[in-house]
Amino acid sequence: MAKILTFRTPEKLMSHFYEHKEATGCETAEEYLIKANAVINNSQVKVKVETDEGDNDKVYYLSQTGEIVFVSEEGFIRTYYIADDEYFERQ
Fold this sequence. Notes:
Blueprint: H1 10-24, H2 29-40, E1 46-49, E2 58-62, E3 67-71, E4 77-82, H3 85-90
Antiparallel strand pairs: 1-2, 2-3, 3-4
C-alpha cells in the first residue's frame, strides 16, 4: 500500500514548492506533492537515514532522475528537489 505523505503545514509546502518548482518541473504545489510521494513509493528508490545533520530524516533518492525527498521522523515531507548520487551519498 502506497504511503501518502504531506508537509507539516501548507506554508512549508508552498515555500518548498516555490523554491524548487523549476528544477522539479512542477507547475502547481499539488503536482510537487504528488511527485514527492511518487519518489517515496517508487520500488527502485534508495532509502537511508540522514546522518549529516543529525536529525534522522529518511532520505529517498531515485538515481535515474536525481529526485530526492527528505522525510522527518514524524512522517512529514521536509523537501523535494533534484540532486546527484554524490550528494545523496553525503547525507
